[in-house]
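User: Before I run my own analysis I want an independent prediction to cross-check against. Here's the chain; please return only the structure tokens and, at the end, one sentence I can use as a sanity check.
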Amino acid sequence: MRIRTITVAWMLGAAVTTFGQDGTMLKQKLAQMGAATKSNASQLSGYQWQESVSVAISGHQAPPRQSLCRYAADGTILKTPIGEPADDPAKHGGPLRRHMIEEKEEQVADLGKTVGQYLPPSPGLLLGTLARGNVALVPDQGGPAVVLSDYAKSGDKMKLILDPASMQAIRIDISTYLDKDRSPVIVQVQFARLADNTLYPAQSTISAPEKKILITTANTSYVRVAP
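Assistant: Structure tokens:
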């Protein structure tokens, strides 16, 4: 295993030099990744699953929001709330408490908009980043990784850690910031495999350290509902 790891790292190091010359091999790898991702998305669209979203603010975690999810014909995700509705914390603590909650809700919404600029990755932004020469293939602990700099915003970075066999992303790491005040935002998406080898986003975290907000999403209980 140690020899294989060193060999892979050496091959990737040589590849990065090649990419700097004409980018042909990198384009081929991105094309493989795109084809594998498209095929996987087609497989995943036939499933429904349960989503659990937990929001922690200043170390205090609200009850998780749970939904039953499935894909619509146009590729959007339809969510049906399940479980008992969470008690409204704004009922407790008076106007000041409600004001604080409303402020944080706005910040959580801003986080959602920011993350939406990266997930799912946009083919147009990928090609634009490649055209600017801001894409590199580098070795990573889990396999090769595609690193995109200045992808959606100046100074941001998105890393796609790939499965060497399938060239599918098995983890996504994003470092970016909010538009309003440039507060840092850190995102990680960890993928897992179903019994038929389909990849799915098992868990994601969105962290805004300066805002003291942490959003964790877990996807479980996948059931195939379409052939």
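Sanity check: The radius of gyration is 20 Å.
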